[in-house]
Amino acid sequence: MTPTEPISGELFSFTEDLLNSETPVKIRVTGNSMYPSLRDGDIVTIRKEAVEQLRRGDIVGIKSSGKWVAHRLQNKQAHQRPLLLRTKGDCCRKPDPVSESSRYVGKVTSFSRAGREHDLDKVRYRLAGSFIARFSVFTTSLFQLVLRSGIYVKKFREGFSRIIESLRFVSRGSKKQVLTSIVLSVLQGMAPFLTIYLIKLLIDSISASGEKLQDPEALRKLWILLILTGLTFLVNALLGIFGGLTRERLSQSVTRNIYRLLHEKHTTLGLAFLEDPIHQDQIHRAGQEAAFRPVKLIQSGIILIQSVISCVVISVFILMTQGYLLGLLLIALIPGFLVRIRFTTLFYHYRRNNSKEEREGHYYHRILTGRPFAKELRLFNLGEYFRSRFEKIQRRLDEQRNQLFRRRAVAEIMAQGFAIALIFISFGLVISMALRGSLSVGSVVLFFMVIQRGFSVLSTLFQSVAGLSEDTVFLRDFLEFMQLPATTVRSKSDCTIQPLRKEIRFDGVGFRYPSSDRKALDSVSMTIPFGKTIALVGPNGSGKTTLVKLLCGFYPPSEGSLYFDDTDIAACSPGASLEQITAVFQDFALYNLSAAENIRLGNVSSRQDQESLKEAARKAGIDDVLKDLPFRYDTPLGNLFDKGEELSIGQWQKMAIARAFYRNSGILILDEPTSALDSESETDLLKNIRNLAKDKTVLIISHRFSTIQWADHIYVLDHGSMVESGTHDQLMSLQGKYYTMFESSRVRVFS
Fold it and tell me: How many CA atoms within 13 Å lie on the side-chain side of 83?
């Protein structure tokens, strides 16, 4: 039991001075080496007492490896000089190394637990301490058993709480279906055993009647029992049908709700999580488990309820024969249950530890089967290369999985063998009772049918409990994913950003990505005046796109401030500035929807206006292409679905620009807007952008100097820092970084 974490020499000296001056010291202990005498979190009082006055069984403080250890004194070796102390923790198998008296700190005289003070100098504590010290071999084993039992009980309670919370979470929005399924499950748990009991009554009635079968009263009773048995068969069948329908509806409802939560989370999740490899592993696992775990969890819960009801009925029937046979049946199934729980944990750790490799394997699979990679895959003959990498990962994962499967198979064989042996022992006991005449023929048939059915039900019960535990463990990744902060979380001030009137200002802004130690932006200061066109220029990796991500609120700055007029966007909701911004990103998206829907995605909250759609398409230079399609603006784009028309990459870029024009926001960001366009299309687009920019604030990022020469102001970035700024003519006259890049581009064009 360690009263403190490692402490400094100064603190040691100070506390020892207090103790030497006969001042008691109170310390909170940690660990369970003195369980149950002292427990984690207890506050002990230590007083200095002469070593010669210490007695066997006292709890003493010893300095050990930068800590104070409070253990029980076993004995003193007074004939030695210096005096030696032998101590041992009540819950420790091995005694501590022998300590010299110079390492003795003081004696624990009392401890406080749950606000109550316990005086260790009282007779009962002294006697108990002396007994524990004298018979430590026995008491240590007992204390360890109690401690482990307490840990198991705590784990069970925690696991049960997690299961309940998980069931509540996945059943949200499906309460009606859940209640209906529970009622039907209760009835399904009772109906089969009612049938078995009626069969038992039929057999006993027939056996007791003998030659009285001609008696009308006896025949009437038999017919009544037969009809009731037939009705229970019918009810059982109907319950199975209706139960299946209800569970299917419940599964559909849960699946819809889980996918809704998953999609909402993905669309509001901070971009940092989507670009961080560690969180990508977590998101990968969450997406995989969301597909089936919630439904499986609900189904396991419903089956558990049905099994519990069946077990209650089984218990009643078995107690009608011999009660001890119920215990025999339970003991037979416990090993299989423990095996399932144990290997659930092992398989979860396997999945968690191999998330990166699984995701890598999925990536290679996407390369081999996805359309974006198809041309290069064939051109460079990369099929065998990526197949070998995929198969290498799969073989490695399969080898680990198969090792776990083999271990589980061996454990299950042993558990099943044990269970079957006990079941046949119970059969033998029942047969012997029947031969002695202590059981009727109907009771024997009842027992055999109940045991056969009961073994199946109890197996299902333990499997459903293990399944609930398994699904809860694997669902943990989904629940952790749902706890990740979203970009829509508002700050305490809950401010809003008004439409831009003066300027956007970067004031000493620095930024580094969570997965990197390198600064993507370093003390960047720049101003984007309202109604002006600003251009960002710089080599690849200079921080241009990162700056745009900060402007859109996808990331908060690591240092410095970003202002919209006089409002620091850090004080507002993440993404609060997006309502004023429209953008065409360098890695623009390709939506396999109709042409009209593609453009309308720029502002889905507005009422669809066909003229505005066409105007946006004309400004982007894509209107002529769309009018020639088979269904004009209603033509599906892309080749994923039937009757779709594929566009060139330049035409797809024009569709992205049309979306930006349709949004018609006050701030327009164009990240390489002409990278996929020919020179004629670029010229036409630039004319439209100039006309559009007259009443907008425009930020252009481009490597094409023809695109940015007409900007009102140009900023030059290099290695994340602002190195130059000015108009095109001013920057050319400086003959610095901009001049070098411009002249280099002219050489490339005319060479």
Answer: 13
3-state secondary structure 431-476: HHHHHCCCCCHHHHHHHHHHHHHHHHHHHHHHHHHHHHHHHHHHHH
pLDDT band at 749 (very low <50, low <70, confident <90, very high): very low
In sign, the C-alpha dihedral spanning 735, 738, 739, 744 is positive
Closest CA to 167 of 352, 302, 284: 302
Contacts of 386 (CB under 8 A, 6+ apart): 364, 367, 368, 377
Q: What are phi and psi of 437, to 5 degrees?
A: 85, 10
* Percent residues over pLDDT 90 in the chain: 5
Average pLDDT of span 461-472: 73
**CATH classification code of 503-750:** 3.40.50.300
> What number is the average pLDDT over the span 410-419?
85
Helices (H), 84-174: 123-134, 136-170
Res. 452 pLDDT band, cuts 50 70 90: low
Whether 490 shows a pLDDT value over 60: the answer reads: no
Does residue 233 contact residue 194 with C-beta atoms inside 8 Å? no
267 pLDDT exceeds 70? yes
Per-residue pLDDT tens digits for 689-698 = 776 666 788 8
Distance between start and end Cα atoms, the chain: 79
Assigned architecture for domain 9-134:
Ribbon (2.10)
Domain pair 9-134 / 503-750, same fold: no
CATH of domain 175-482: 1.20.1560.10
Give how far the C-alpha of residue 84 lies from the chain's centroid of Cα atoms, to the nearest Å. 53
Domain parsing of the chain, residue ranges: 9-134, 175-482, 503-750
